[in-house]
Amino acid sequence: xxxxxxxxxxxxxxQAVKEPGLVGSLKHFFxxxxxxxxxxxxxxxxxxxxxxxxxxxxxxxxKSTTIKMLTGILVxxxxxxxxxxxxxxxxxxQNARKMGVVFGQRTQLWWDIPVIESFNLARDMYxxxxxxxxxxxxxxxxxxxxxxxxxxxxxxxxxGQRMRADLCMAxxxxxxxxxxxxxxxxxxIAVKDSIRKFIHRLVEERGTTVMLTTHDLGDIxxxxxxxxxxxSGKIIHDGGLADLKDNYARDRxxxxxxxxxxxxxxxxxxxxxxxxxxxxGLSLSVRFDRFEFAAGEIAAAVMPHVEVIDFRIDEPExxxxxxxxxxxxxxxxxxxxTADTPESAVAAEA
Amino acid sequence: xxxxxxxxxxxxxxxxxxxxxxAGFAFNMIGTVFYVVAMFYLWQTIFLxxxxxxxxxxxxxxxxxxxxxxxxxxxxxxxxxWTMGSDIREGRVATxxxxxxxxxxxxxxxAIGPVPFELVSALGIGAVVAVVFGGxxxxxxxxxxxxxxxxAALATLLKFAIIYCVSMVAFWTTGMEGVQxxxxxxQNIFSGALIPLVFFPEWLRGFASVLPFQGMISxxxxxxxGAMDGPTTAFMIGTQAVWxxxxxxFGRLLWRSAIKAVTINGG
Lengths: 350, 267
Fold this sequence. Notes:
The complex is a heterodimer. By secondary structure, chain A is of the alpha/beta class. Chain A has helices spanning 21-30, 63-70, 92-98, 115-125, 130-144, 159-171, 189-206, 217-223, 241-248, 266-271, 295-302, 318-326, 342-349; strands spanning 4-17, 33-47, 52-56, 78-83, 99-103, 177-181, 209-213, 226-231, 234-239, 251-258, 276-280, 283-289, 308-314. In chain A, the strands form three sheets. Chain A has a six-stranded mixed β-sheet with strand order 5-6-7-3-8-9, with helices on both faces. Chain A has a four-stranded antiparallel β-sheet with strand order 11-12-10-13, sandwiched between helices. The two termini of chain A are 46 Å apart. Chain B is mainly α. Chain B has one domain (2-261). The longest helix of chain B is centred in the last third of the chain and has 36 residues, at 230-265. Classes of the chains: A alpha/beta, B mainly alpha. The interface between A and B is medium-sized, with 35 and 26 residues.
């Protein structure tokens, strides 16, 4: 049985509508008007134990709302949701015992007292047996390098230190499920790296199920084996990272560096009918579907007509792909049309 | 009892925070000392004009009343609508909801944590002020003292319950400072903190007697002085207890429906 099972999960918010200015405020005071907003729109999601899922989407897509329903903070408007056998909002405290949450933008540590005291508080709140607490604390302290600021109040440590301490706090009770809401936001590369390694290890060694929202694609590549993309409250992609690349990032680009400008493009174009060619002075680039052609075939078609000094191949970038989804240039719901938009061609050449 | 262990830890952590802000705490205390001294001089002047008892109080009894009021006002000062309101408005309560804890009990633990320290400080200062002003009336009977301790404890619970309920206004408004000031103004008048309720005109006294605020100062202070007869004392302390239980439950209900509105309809 899946650890998380959602069917038709929907969350509708009621937003107050107010016209601008004093008149608007007055009007609002007497005749309140509301507009319904579908934050999460009938999503189906099933997560097995041990999976690490990247939950992506542009700002306002419904990521946080979903996470809040999973954690039992928000009550769904409709649909069903079962997390490890419980309906989260009905059994909020029981659900909370089995999960850990880290909000990148908000600390769970007690601001004014030393970090270690927050950990001790977690021990009592989650009723962690003394021996397990000690062992976990020792392990996380070492892996996350917490020793140097253990006795400093959370309000006085750096953001990177705080995030590491927050991770530790969320994991001391060995939750089955870990929700990470933008865990690497604002962190430097070294700290990002150590946090990713730590979470990766957690997934590998403890079998913790991780659900992660992020805008940082490095997080995904290092941690997740599955990507779910939500946009305007609807899930528009659910699959592995490789699937995403295979299905939507089919284009590769070969850039040739030429000895002299080609005399004519005609014969080259004729040899590569399904490809997209760009010539600019001494450079020639060919965009092709990597399932239709091998890079060698492209080279073989180009070489007889020009003198090639050098070449390189651009692999499809997930980052570019997701960016295009966010910008609405690429619809994942339907298969991507073969014709390229000018923007993506520019991006690929940049 | 094991389940309560976590709340004990929260209370302990909350007490620690007060030591972090010891300067703020000290200034707060100094402020209330000035206030209590001013009250002493004010009432001294009133009593000088009218020798003997006034409204049933002798001057030493009035001094005792003021000291008791001072001590009760000095506890649970770190829990207020403003703090809880900003936690609600800025969504920090989400963090609490993601934990296996009861929201009201957690808040109570946070509020009660610093109380022992506040109490010791207030007792010390109160003793000094009492000595400087020539001593205060002591409870005539140890039974009064025992009942006073019960009543004072109820007064502290009542303070929590009232502030907790009032804080829920944060779900509907952003002006928590005004709400807090309004609550304090009403409380200062109807608790008997400024003027003992006996000095009120009949109709106002009647109004005060149906409000919960008298249980915050008046009831414990009068119990300390033994100013009420046995049955009245029992009735007044019983009233305090009823208000505590009622407002605690009402607070839970408010929280439940408010959080439901937020989590169902959105903020």
